[in-house]
Write a structure and sequence with these properties.
This protein has 396 residues and is mainly alpha-helical. Helix content is 47%, strand content 9%. α3 crosses α5, α7 (183-191) crosses α11 (295-308) and α8 packs antiparallel against α10.
């Protein structure tokens, strides 16, 4: 009997990757032949980030395989019922809707729907298929209740999970990740890395707040030991899919981090760099020795070190170093105003475009900070209260 995994492997529908001029292109093919509409749309959504293109490609592939299994064509889907059946398929409920706990989070499920909305929106704009023969209104025409135009795929575009009978399903709660490291956790984790390379990647995230994609996208020329700096450059980095999502910038680092990077370069990297790559961080052993280190590989290494340190493996993520750095800068700004550290400096250091981005990272005020602030406020409040009492006495 063929299991579901084997069925997927035997499916004629696949995601294939092409590399041209250093840029990745994701395609959905059937029997090796690209599906034109899907490929053109994936090119569009991949403009800013090929990581988005990859994620959307596999989400759309799952939908296409569902349609294939039910002998349907994406150009002929005009009913919400098809989408509901697809959602049931994602949840593993087949033809029944019952009160169960799904293995899929609501956020993950909503992502699949977002991909379909975007794809059908593009199909509609590009006039890639026949018009829907059913008359109905959509969000685009909600102010025009009597529309004579047959809006293609309006039901799909206007589809929301909440409107579906699927809202009776109990979704698995989104996992809560470790957002900030304590000093003890940082010291413990770094002791359990098997290589200098792993410790170096970890400490760069802690001491600079760089994203893992920015760190693993570093080249040798981006590290300047004389200026004690790291340069973040937005490049495709198709070899390991490490992408810099934030602004290009130069980060100045402390001498201990400079020494750690140089130790890694001279002790481990010099031996493993068999391919003469200019990536700073490479694989140190195995069949991929000398190849650029990939984010998912470092995540596995980080989880291993964190688990040995006593943390929950499922709570560990590479982004916690960035959150920790942001919080450290916020606390210094609050505790030491004489240093002149401003939010503008923090925004530039973290590569944020919006001044509101900091809200997603800071913890808020600690009890120590609150106590310190109140001790400074108390004399001011007492003076104000005394002045008010004097004014009242004068008026009386």
């Amino acid at each position: 009997m063929v299991n579901p995994q084997q069925l997927e492997e035997l499916s004629p529908l696949r995601v294939e990757v092409a590399l041209s001029d250093g840029e990745l292109r994701y395609m959905i093919t059937e029997h090796g032949i690209p599906i034109s509409d899907a490929c053109l749309w994936l090119d569009l959504v991949s403009l800013n980030s090929y990581l988005t293109g990859e994620r959307y490609a596999y989400a759309l592939l799952r939908y296409f395989r569902f349609l294939k299994k039910n002998t349907l064509d994406y150009r002929h889907v005009v009913s919400k019922q098809v989408i509901e059946e697809y959602l049931k398929d994602l949840l593993g409920l087949e033809s029944k809707i019952i009160n169960v706990e799904s293995r899929m989070t609501f956020t993950a499920l909503n992502t699949y729907i977002t991909v379909l909305k975007s794809f059908y929106h593009w199909l509609e704009d590009e006039k890639k298929a026949v018009l829907n023969p059913v008359l109905f209104s959509s969000r685009r025409t909600r102010n025009l209740p009597f529309v004579n135009t047959k809006l293609l795929y309006g039901q799909v575009w206007n589809y929301t999970i909440q409107e579906s009978i699927l809202n009776r399903v109990t979704y698995r709660k989104k996992r809560s990740h470790l957002k900030w490291y304590s000093n003890h956790e940082i010291d413990t984790i770094r002791k359990h890395f098997p290589t200098i390379r792993d410790e170096t990647v970890f400490m760069i995230s802690i001491e600079t707040g760089m994203r893992i994609g920015e760190i693993l996208g570093l080249k040798l020329e981006h590290f300047d030991p004389f200026e004690s700096s790291l340069n973040i450059v937005r490049q495709q980095n198709s070899e390991n899919k490490a992408l810099a999502k934030t602004l290009e910038r130069t980060l100045f680092i402390n001498s201990s981090l400079v020494d750690l990077i140089q130790s890694y370069i001279h002790i481990e990297r010099s031996v493993a760099n068999l391919n003469n790559t200019n990536y700073l961080f490479v694989n140190l052993k195995g069949i991929y020795i000398g190849k650029p280190l990939k984010p998912r590989n470092f995540l596995r290494i980080l989880k291993n070190a964190g688990e040995i340190s006593g943390l929950e493996r499922s709570d560990i993520r590479t982004h916690s170093g960035r959150s920790t750095r942001a919080q450290q800068l916020v606390e210094i700004m609050r505790d030491n105003p004489e240093l002149g550290l401003t939010q503008t400096f923090i925004d530039e250091e973290m590569g944020w475009k919006s001044p509101h981005s900091i809200k997603n990272y800071e913890k808020g005020y600690s009890n120590r900070q609150k106590k310190k602030i109140m001790s400074k406020l108390e004399p001011i409040l007492l003076v104000k209260q005394a002045n008010m009492e004097d004014t009242d006495d004068y008026n009386n």
